[in-house]
Specification:
Radius of gyration: 20 Å
Number of strands: 0
Distance between the termini: 42 Å
Largest sheet: none
Helix content: over 70%
Structural class: mainly alpha
Order of helices and strands: HHHHHHHHHHHH
Mean pLDDT: 80
Oligomer: single chain
Strand content: under 5%
Shape: globular
Length: 298
């Protein structure tokens, strides 16, 4: 008797979009650009979303960045160089992930960002390693757990962005004031200086990572039709998060008076302020800490 081959498990195109979404941009990725450029970062986001992220998402992700360069130029050397540079640029990203893990745990346990101050560098690194290892072991032990975690993480992070925008609108409708002065000449108009162009490079770094979807294209049931859907969904969510969140930050924080730890802790400050404004205490802040921990370990 001939046994039938097991049915292949296909990934839903929305799952692929969410998996890629948590690698491209997180809620806190918008904070540092806002700190550097103020509301003029809106211009930078729009320009890069159209001229970089959209074509990059639709083209490079189909092959993976290194393969795209290799086939597009016909040069193995450029393909290998791209692979090496991609590996090298992940080093600061891993450091950022480690910091995010500790910061998230600190806010979850202590309700502030002081946990790192009570730890030696060795304990800091060990705790980060253990947490990441646990997630890796879980993903290895349970089939399709990466799909599930990515789907949950992506939905949760996008939901927090929607909640953030809704509460900003609610606050404004209930007497809240806008912290940043919104005028074209003084706020939105970019100042094309060395500082502007150097900090704009950080936006490119924040929006990179779409090529990580390449290995999963073959897991779609109908890649030709479903893959473009995933990438357009990914692009739409990125547009929503970057633009609406930046405007929301302008309501909460004066662009000219930003806390020095805004990049790592700004998101927690934002949800803490909104939670207290809405009479929800610190519940939103704790909720975001859990979501942040989940997404950085996916």
């Amino acid at each position: 008797m001939i046994e039938e081959p097991p049915k292949k498990h296909y990934m839903a195109w929305m799952t692929l979009a969410m998996l890629d979404f948590v690698t491209i941009i997180r809620f806190e990725d918008v904070f540092y650009p806002y700190q550097n450029q103020g509301l003029s970062v809106i211009f930078s986001w729009i320009f890069l979303l159209i001229c970089y992220q959209l074509p990059y998402t639709l083209i490079a992700t189909q092959l993976g960045l290194a393969s795209w360069i290799r086939r597009g130029t016909g040069s193995d050397v450029l393909g290998y160089a791209t692979s090496w540079m991609y590996w090298a640029q992940t080093v600061p990203y891993l450091v950022d992930v480690s910091n995010s893990i500790i910061v998230s745990i600190s806010w979850m346990i202590l309700g502030n960002n002081t946990l790192g101050k009570h730890m030696s560098p060795f304990m800091f690194g060990l705790l980060t390693f253990v947490i990441i290892l646990i997630f890796i072991l879980c993903e290895s032990a349970y089939k399709n757990s990466l799909d599930l975690l990515s789907l949950i993480g992506g939905i949760a992070m996008f939901a927090m962005s929607v909640i953030f925008v809704i509460l900003i609108i609610w606050a404004l409708m209930h007497g809240g004031h806008i912290a940043t002065k919104m005028e074209w000449s003084s706020s939105f108009k970019p100042n094309f200086s060395v500082h502007y162009f150097s900090t704009t490079g950080l936006l490119i770094f924040a929006m990179s990572g779409a090529e990580l979807a390449a290995p999963y294209v073959t897991r779609l049931k109908n890649p030709r039709k479903e893959f473009p859907k995933s990438m357009w969904m990914l692009f739409a969510m990125t547009v929503f998060m970057t633009l609406t969140e930046t405007l929301g930050l302008a309501v909460l924080f004066d662009a000219k008076h930003i806390p020095h730890d805004f990049k790592m802790n700004g998101a927690f400050y934002a949800f803490q302020l909104l939670g207290e404004e809405a009479g929800m205490g610190k519940s939103l802040m704790y909720m975001y800490a859990i979501v942040c921990l989940l997404t950085v370990t996916c």
